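User: What would this chain look like folded?
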Amino acid sequence: MKINAKFYYSIFFFGFGCNSPFSEGQPQIALNDVSLIGKENLSIQKTIALETTSENLMGIDIRVRFDRESFYLMDEGNKDGIHQFDRNGDYLGVIAPVGDGPDHLPKMDDFFINSDGSVEVLSGIGDQATLYHISESGEISVVFETGYLASSFTKLPNGEYLLYGSYNLPFTKHRLIKTDPQGNELSSYLENSYQNSLLPMTERNFFINGKNIHVIESFQPYVYKYQNDSLERIAQMDFGRYTIPNYFWEEDIMESFGKMSEAGFANLHSIFEDEQLMLLSVHLQKPEGIFKELVFIDKNTDKVQKLSTNLNDDLLYHYPIGVNDGQVMFLTYRSVILDGLPQHMLEKIQNEIPEEEFDYPVILTAKIQFDE
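Assistant: Here's the prediction, encoded as C-alpha cells.
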C-alpha cells in the first residue's frame, strides 16, 4: 500500500519522537505529493571558499568527503586524484594522484578517509579491483586485490569492507558483498539477475551518516541501511511518471536507455542525515534537461518538503554534500553564487568570496525554513 509522505510522518513522529523516520517500517514517499519550497527558504549561514590555482582546477560534478580537519574532493569528470583542503579552505595538495610512476595510482573509482588521516582508494581495471592505502606521508601500498569488480566501497568500523559492483555479470553475481580486511568475501547481498549488457556504473553508493551506513544504487528506488551484517530496506521512493520502466530490464541497454531518456527517468543520488534533518537527493533526467529534487525531512516534526534545482541555470543548491547540526552543506562555485543569490543576500557574503584569477568552488552551509 502506498503511504502518503505527510500522513506517514505525522503518525511516525507521534510514536518515535526524534528517532530516524525510517527506523521502523518501510514508507513509500511519493515525490509528487511532497510540497515545493523555493530558494528563499534556505538562508546561508557560512561560506568556505576553496583555494584554487591552475594545479587544482575542477569541474562541477565533485565527490566530497570531509572529517573534522579537512575536505577531500575528487573530480568525477577526470578522477585525477583527491584534492585536500583544510577547514578554512586552504589547499593542502593532491592525495593519490593518478598517472604513471611509483607515487601514482593507475586509476581511481572511490575513496575512504580513515580516522588517522590516511586514505584508501579503490581502483578497478579489467576484471580486477585493487584497494590501495595511502599514508599521510603519501606512501602507497596495496591492501588487497579481488576478482569482484567493485566500483565503490566503504570501510566498516571493525576493519571489514563493503564493496558494490553494480549489474556487471558475470563479474558480480551479487551487487553488494562484504569482505574481511584481506578482501576475502564473507557475505553477499542484492543478487544480480540482470542478463543484458550494462555499462559499468561508478556512482557513489555508500553514505556514512553518524553511526548509520546507508546504501543506494542506480535504477532502484530504495534506501537501505546496513547494520549487524544485514541490509535493511528502510524506504522506497515513488517517482511517478519518472519511475524506471520495466522494459529497461528486458531490452538491450542501447535501445532501452535511449527510450527511457526520451521519456525521462529518476534516480536516487544521495542521502544525508543527522539527528535533526534528513535529505534525499533525487536526480531527474528529463528531455528538457537534468534536474534534482531535494527532499528535506525535519525529524523533530512531521514536515517533509522539497526544493527543485536544475543543471542548466540553477546550480546554487544543486550539489548537497552533507547534513550537520540540522543544516545542509552544498558545494557550488563563486560564479554560481553571483548569479543565483539576490543582491541583499549577496552583500552579506561578498567579502567572503572575493574575485580571484580562477573561478573556484565554495562550500555553503544553509539553514532550511520549512513552510507551515
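The chain is about 10% helix and 45% strand. If you want, I can go into more detail on any region.
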